[in-house]
Structure formats: C-alpha cells, structure tokens
UniProtKB/TrEMBL annotation:
InterPro entries: Pectin_lyas_fold, Pectin_lyase_fold/virulence, Pectinesterase_cat. Pathway: Glycan metabolism; pectin degradation; 2-dehydro-3-deoxy-D-gluconate from pectin: step 1/5. Residues 1-25 form the signal peptide. This is pectinesterase. Acts in the modification of cell walls via demethylesterification of cell wall pectin. SUPFAM superfamilies: Pectin lyase-like. Residues 33-333 form the Pectinesterase catalytic domain. Belongs to the pectinesterase family. It comes from the Eukaryota.
Length: 341
C-alpha cells in the first residue's frame, strides 16, 4: 500500500513536470450552453448560443457544439468576450458556408484585410478579446471543387486579442485563415489552402500545426501558391507568424510566403517540409525590390522541402538570440494563456 502511494506520487510529479506551462492553471467556466443540430440541446444553431452571452461578459462561458455539420455564418462580436467554443473533434464537428469575394482579387488585397468584400466572406469571425476554440472545424466550401476561377473565400477571420485555437481545422483554398490583428496561439491545428492561406497582420505562434497545400497538381510547374502573406507595415509594429514544429505537405507547389507589406515577418522553426515547397522559398510581392526589411527565415527545418541551397538571397539568417525572441512563448504570451479555461 505504501509502495503504491509512493509510485502514484512520482507519476503525478512527472506528469506535472511534462505538462505545458500554459496549461498549468485553468480558469473556471461559469456555465455551459449546448448546441445540437438535432434539437437535443439548448439551441440548434451556434449563433443563437453566442447571442445568449451577455454584452460585456467577464466570466468564461462554454458553448459545447455536439458532433454534426452546421451550415451557418458565426460571428463572435467585440462585446462578447470570454467564450470557449468547443466541438467534439474537428473531423466530426464543422461549421461551414460558401460566401466569396466579388471583384478584382488584386484590388481587394491592396485595400487590406478589412476590405468589405474580403472579411465578410468568413464562415467564422471573432472580433472579441479573450476567446478559445477547441476541437472544431471552420470551412469555406466555395472553392472546394472548381478551382479554375477561384476568389477570396475565408474560413475564419481572427481579429481580437488573447485568442487561442486548440486542435481546430481551417479548410479553404484562397485566404483560408485571416489571422488579422493582435496575439493568437494555434496549437496542433490543421490548416488547408492553396493561395495566401494564412494572411494578416497578427503576432501568432503556430505550435505543432499541420499545413496542407491543396493546389491541384494539374496547375503545372509555372503556377504555385503561397502559404503565408504577412502584412506588417512598419518597423515598430508588433507582428509575425511563427511556425514551431509541425509539417507542411500536400499537392501542387507552394512558396513559404510572400511579403504583403515591406516589414512582413514569418519564421519556420523545426518544421518538416515536403517537396511541395518551391526551391526559391519566398516571393517579394508588394515589397518589390525593397526586401531589406522583410524578415523571412527558416531554422532547423527538415524534409526534402527544407533544402535552402536555392532560396532567395534576401532570406534572413537569424542569430540564436533572434531565434529565441520569436520561438519563446513570450513572443505572444505575457500570462494570458494560463488564464484561459
């Protein structure tokens, strides 16, 4: 008996030591609202559950979405913070819709992520601070089959501060995930797209995420997509996409990113890259010939796509201190992650 107690204590200590620091404390959930498409919950639609959360909310409210496919556009408005949106696994709980942008894609991109026809296409939008999503998929089905005349069609728009996604999926083709502003954390998420499928101004860490290109192989060697389009405008602006671990795979060919603005910042750290990666790696886009301030970097990546021998000459080579600045959780976290449920 004594021996078993000692062993249990040792196991508990080991588990606590291995547990991520950001998960060592949990905020309490004040209530749970259940959504069930079959009518066996509080609501049939997710937006109805969101609407029930009072404006100015300061206590965590769980919206549990039972397995099923929910065809609706869902918005978390700025006034409704502290929502935990929880599915039953991103392969079984999905929010989907098929809106898409109209007009010139180039013109819309030049106007920015807040151009009306761009952001209004999102299947899911969060404008509130302090939001968490777990085990749920966000999908825009517009470019799902016919990719001969694709246009912007967002699966999700993330536009608040202190936001985390755990084990979620984002499915689209062009502009899948608008990671627009402030600080975000994506843990072990699945993100699928073909053109600029992660874009915006935000300061985010993608921890152990799977990035999947769905560029059709028939596009040929002259047509490729871009995984990222970061839009940092000025030297003093906080911002950057950091990919820690995980993998990049799929079909077709992909650049690791292109510079939406001249201070665009993207770092791949210990990512496994398949041969889907274009040897040049990066494209200047709106930075044009002025790439001195663009910070695109790769550190310790593996796989056939990680060969840097033919990369663009303006890719940055970071010092150990610079690498630490980006990959340390302090890049986005000043304690807010440990205060989430």
């Amino acid at each position: 008996m004594e021996c078993h107690g000692t062993v249990s204590l040792v196991v508990l200590v080991l588990v606590l030591l291995r547990w991520p620091a950001s998960s060592s404390a949990w905020a309490p959930v004040s209530r749970t609202i259940t959504v069930d498409s079959e009518g066996r919950g509080d609501f049939r639609s997710i937006q109805s559950a969101v609407n029930l959360v009072p404006d100015g909310n300061r206590e965590w409210v769980r919206i549990h979405v039972r397995a099923g496919r929910y065809r609706e556009k869902v918005t978390i408005p700025k006034e409704k913070g502290y929502i935990l949106l929880e599915g039953e696994g991103h392969s079984s709980t999905e929010i989907y819709f098929d809106d898409h942008a109209h007009g010139s894609t180039d013109g819309l991109m030049r106007r920015g992520a807040d151009a009306m026809l761009t952001y209004e296409t999102a299947t899911f939008s969060v404008y509130a601070n302090d939001f968490v999503a777990r085990d749920i998929a966000f999908t825009n089905t517009h470019n799902g089959v016919n990719k001969s005349h694709v246009t912007q069609a967002l699966a999700a728009l993330v536009d608040g501060d202190r936001i985390a996604f755990h084990h979620c999926a984002f499915n689209g083709f062009e502009d899948t995930l608008c990671d627009n502003t402030d600080r975000h954390y994506f843990r072990e998420c699945f993100i699928k797209g073909g053109v600029d499928f992660i874009f915006g101004y935000a300061r985010s860490i993608y921890d152990g995420c799977t990035l999947v290109s769905n560029i059709p192989p028939r596009y040929g060697r002259r047509r490729a997509g871009w995984v990222t389009a970061h839009a940092r405008r000025h030297a003093g602006d906080p911002g950057g996409f950091v990919f820690k671990g995980g993998e990049l795979r799929g079909t077709g060919r992909q650049y690791l990113g292109r510079a939406w603005n001249k201070y665009a910042t993207v770092v791949y750290y210990h990512v496994n890259m398949s041969s889907v990666v274009v040897p040049k790696g990066w494209a200047p886009w709106y930075a044009g010939n002025d790439t001195n301030d663009v910070l695109f970097a790769e550190v310790g990546c593996t796989g056939p796509g990680s060969d840097m021998a033919r990369r663009v000459p303006w890719e940055k080579h970071l010092s150990e201190a610079e690498v630490k600045k980006f990959v340390d959780m302090s890049f986005i976290d000043d304690g807010w992650l440990s205060k989430q449920p």
